[in-house]
Amino acid sequence: MLESFHFPAGILPKRVTGYELDPSSGKFHADLNGSCSFSLEGSYQLSYQKIITVYVSDGRLTELRGISVKILFFWLSILDVVRFGDDLDFSVGVASASFPLDNFFVSPQCGSGLDCDGFRIRKLKLRNGKPSLSSV
């Protein structure tokens, strides 16, 4: 559906289980099978909540809710995404960053596999010298 508004499908992770679009307002709602995170270009960590809402129009996503980016030590909500030619511009309000479209041609697999099957690192405990994972 996002491709019809000139966005690559990979702007959302593989965990999308369903979506709704109100064509009259452009309000888009996507459901993910749990929260999700992954790295973009190795320097930015993106985090997706279980529910993503946004207003979508041709080449523009506004009033985005449910996606955050880690910048230095802080998590900031991504508010808008605008397509400029072959780049996507992600805005967190006072700052923005552009990334080539080819980063988003394939939907990313969340995390390193640890949180994709209902597992997440809750506490790093050493058991016999090895990290212990627990289900959340």
What's the arrangement of secondary structure elements?
Blueprint: E1 16-22, E2 27-32, E3 36-40, E4 44-57, E5 60-71, E6 74-77, E7 80-84, E8 87-91, E9 96-100, E10 119-127, E11 130-135
Antiparallel strand pairs: 1-2, 2-4, 3-4, 4-5, 5-6, 5-7, 7-8, 8-9, 10-11
Pfam family, one: DUF538
Mean pLDDT: 79
What's the helical proportion of residues? under 10%
CATH architecture: Roll
Task: State the total count of DSSP E strands.
Answer: 11
Which labels suit this protein?
mainly beta, disordered C terminus, At5g01610-like, two-stranded antiparallel ribbon, DUF538, single chain, 136 residues, at5g01610, DUF538 DOMAIN, 9-stranded antiparallel β-sheet
How would you characterize the overall build of this protein?
By secondary structure, the protein is mainly β. It has one domain: Roll (at5g01610, DUF538 DOMAIN). Helix content is 0%, strand content 57%. It contains no helices and eleven strands. It has strands at residues 16-22, 27-32, 36-40, 44-57, 60-71, 74-77, 80-84, 87-91, 96-100, 119-127, 130-135. The strands form two sheets. Strands 1, 2, 3, 4, 5, 6, 7, 8 and 9 form a nine-stranded antiparallel sheet that branches. Strands 10-11 form a two-stranded antiparallel sheet. Strand 3 and strand 4 form a beta hairpin. The radius of gyration is 16 Å and the shape is globular. The two termini are 32 Å apart. The model is unreliable at 112-136 (pLDDT under 50). Pfam families: DUF538. InterPro entries: At5g01610-like (IPR036758), DUF538 (IPR007493).
